[in-house]
Amino acid sequence: MRTRSPTVTRHRRRVLRIAVLAVVGFLTIAWALVLALVGLALPWVVAHPDRIATELSQRLGRPVAFERIDARWEPAGPVFTLAGVRIGDGASAFVVPEAEWVVDFYAWLRRGVSFSEFRLGGLDLEVVREAEGGWRVRGLGPGPAPVDLDLVLDLTAVTIEAARVRVLDAERRIDWRLARLDARVRNEAGARLVGVTAWATAVSPPLRAACLRETDASPYRC
Fold first, then answer.
1. Which residues of the chain form beta strands (DSSP E)?
2. Fewest Cβ atoms closer than 10 Å to its Cβ: which of 20, 86, 105, 138?
3. How many CB atoms are closer than 10 A to CB 69?
4. Is the CB of residue 119 less than 8 Å from the CB of residue 100?
5. Phi and psi dihedrals of 60, rounded to 5?
6. Which of 9-13, 116-120, 127-131 has the highest mean pLDDT?
7. End-to-end CA distance of the chain, in Å?
8. How many CB atoms lie within 10 A of CB 169?
9. pTM score above 0.90
10. How far apart are CA 105 and CA 126, in angstroms?
């Protein structure tokens, strides 16, 4: 039985190592080129806000409009700042004073991180306990009736920052107001994961909770 000489084995390993390094180098350069092109395209995107509105409308399945858009580049990707966001039509529209749409090109390298995330600030929210015992989060729109926040939470990932919250439970006669609430929502395989940090007053210690909604029809379990 013939055996490979050490010289041949070393040569093949060297060739394989060079090939791997060449592929890695090519992919690195190609990726850097893609990021550079995206960065150069940011001014064009800001000058054509209708493209962002169309993309968000397609993601939500509802019309999206906003008053102004700005863009900046962060290490992980572009961040689009939207002012005066309006989701939906008429009195049923959901209005957000300011929002950010964040794109993370390195999300695939980190577990639990989404490629795109919608950040919402300055919201007034209602957390209502329904008759069957589940909880529903509603945002306050321009009309007299609260607007279902699921209009926005259907996106892949949503972060809510510094929201003012009212908690209502008619059965238990609860009517609480929270000074601030921060939350992160992630939709994954049909389920919705929610992490919440809340402050009852400006000086109180934070309260933290994690909730899960397994399907669209099921209530949240915390």
1. 64-65, 68-74, 77-87, 94-103, 116-121, 124-129, 135-139, 147-148, 157-169, 174-188, 191-199, 207-213
2. 20
3. 21
4. yes
5. -90, -20
6. 116-120
7. 67
8. 14
9. no
10. 34
> Which residue matches tokens 């490629």?
115
Q: Which residues contact 139 (CB under 8 A, 6 or more apart)?
A: 94, 123, 124, 125, 126, 146, 147, 148, 149, 151, 152
Instruction: Answer for the pair 120, 160: CB distance below 8 angstroms, yes or no.
Output: yes
Of 155, 167, 156, 217, give the one whose Cα is nearest residue 196.
Answer: 167
Report residue 28: phi and psi, to 5°: -65, -45
For tokens 């999206």, the residue is 64
Nearest partner of 135 among 171, 159, 162, 109, judged by Cα? 171
CA 14 to chain centre: 44
Both structure tokens of 70: 């700005």
Alpha-carbon distance 176 to 200, whole Å?
A: 9
Separation of alpha carbons 194 and 184, rounded Å: 6
pLDDT band at 116 (very low <50, low <70, confident <90, very high): confident
Neighbours of 182 (CB within 10 A): 16
Strands 116-121 and 94-103: antiparallel
Q: Residue 79: which of 34, 42, 36 has the closest Cα?
A: 42
- List C-alpha distances in Å: 91 to 21, 32, 63: 58, 45, 13
Both tokens of 63, joined, read 């019309």
